[in-house]
Amino acid sequence: MLTTLAVENYRSLRDLVLPLSGLTVVTGPNGSGKSSLYRALRLLADASRNGAVAALAREGGLPSTLWAGPENGARPGARVQGTVRTKAVGLRLGFAGDEFGYALDLGLPVPGETMFNLDPEFKREAVWAGPFLKPASLLADRAGPSVRTRVASGGWDPDAYRIRLSDSMLSEFADPRACPELLVVRERIRSWRFYDHFRTDASAPAREPRIGTRTPVLSHDGADLAAALQTIIEVGRAAELASLVDAAFPGSRLSVVSTEGSLSVRFHQHGLLRPLSAAELSDGTLRFLLWVAALLTPRPPELLVLNEPETSLHPDLLPALAALIATAAKETQLVVVSHASPLIRALSEIADVGTLELEKENGETKLVGQGRLDRPSWHWPKR
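RE: above sequence
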């Protein structure tokens, strides 16, 4: 389980070190940095697939995502002026858990050496054992293009490995004999799953019948909703599924029908003479069923991150959504980004929740109530 998340110089997250629990709710007013924290987690996951450079390019390149304020933040009441930077410009992301930790440091290329000046370079990466980074716990250490790994005797392999500055060692260094722990960390990060704003408009993929194949993991666009629900039913969770649907829509049930191999959802409501197809469902009903399919997954990930799951749901559905999230938290670590107070209260009543409230002060995102001595222990690998 992840116990610490650290972000430095990503948008408004100038210097943030957060404690994580089995079920963490991130909340705060609009503009406080919740979405930036969600994106930072996605960027960490992208790095394990060598997608961090492309992800930053979609945001305008590394310079567009860097903290735009003074290097050391702004003091309340003081005039904000330009500053001469004393440290190398970089975006740093990392996490630590009970078994392993990982950190990366992305920086700008040397001017004049390339035309791709907006693409970041991996300046440092480190994987370590245990919750804290220290020299003795390092398992794999990357400085520039050079990667070194720990050997069984405890020392460093005398042969350094070379990789490109645009590539992460998580994705490009894949020798299980040299550092099997690096592969373990990579596969765990790659299992992380993110869901963000399912489409429920009239043309949404979830409203259309689709060829049915066993689907233990709902796709990000929800196109395989019927197949995912049928998979949940066939793996033995039909009663659990029925209970959650009835809690949200009393007296209702759902079924999946097959027509020449194509699967589609049918929603049965008390008082109606026929079931409703997915195309006929309200946006809120369809969105709730999508969350059911996502959270009752027969293949739980190491980490499941939900961004504003309350969107388009009627307030009366939030207790049922809280119960669904609490059920999923028994099998996987969850981070829920939300500004819906009723959902957070409902979750707190039925589950052990770690609540992180963010606020923005002088343009910088901070954790409400966190003093310097309250921060989890964290150290970045130095360039």
